[in-house]
Fold this sequence. Notes:
The chain is an all-alpha fold.
Amino acid sequence: MIGGLGFGELVLVFAVLLLLFGAKRLPELASGMGKGIRDFKRSVNGLDDNSLQSHDEPNSIAPGETRTAAPVQHLAEAEPKRLQD
């Protein structure tokens, strides 16, 4: 049972494909579909590998160099602004 199809359904699908495409063309179609699926999987895996590599690379900082963020002023500590009339 493949994909919920029984033996009878698979034979029927194969017979329809054989009638539509012929005996010579059917192996060509199957190999073309196999190559397409293989290329698709390679490209998907390649994209996954490339995206992981770009995110894994740390930001380059020279030895001895430090980076500090600007000080943050919390709203509770900030002085309220006065409206001018």
